[in-house]
Design goal:
It is a multi-pass membrane protein. The protein is an alpha+beta fold. Helices cover about 55% and strands about 20% of the residues. It has six helices and four strands. A hairpin with a 2-residue loop joins strand 2 and strand 3.
Length: about 170
Amino acid sequence: MLGLLGTIFLIQIVYVSCFTLRMILTLKGQKYLAACIAFVEITIYVLGLNMVLKYLDQPISLIVYAAGYGLGVLTGSWIENKLALGYVTLRVIINDPRSTLPNQLRDLGYGVTTWMGYGRDGERLMLEVLARRKNQAKLYQTIVGIDPKAFIVTFEPTQFHGGFWTKASKR
């Protein structure tokens, strides 16, 4: 019985990790990879559910199934975080309109668009920087290292076309 419970637990972790990755890939437009994962996911799901349904008279099998599901969500999220799929846009607002931050970021290979904004206390330099998610933490630390008072908002774009990314798509 212990071996069966361990198998149910592991099947659930793999199944839900696949489910989590498939959903994220679908949202990011990776439909073919998501479809391949869905094939594996549903096969694993049917096997796991079949095992649990055979032992419905033993509540421990359902508890193990549910615990595997919960851990599968965490595992799938962790895997996706490590893969760091997609892109992020950082919108940066700097108090000093003459800041050298845009050129420093450009020297590091980032595409930077700037414009002037106006806040409560006057002019602000606005920056928009697009980067791969895997480079997000490094970019954030670079900005804060150069200007600790920078205001940074991060969001994930769903589509983009042209500009810097068509010339240098590996950044």
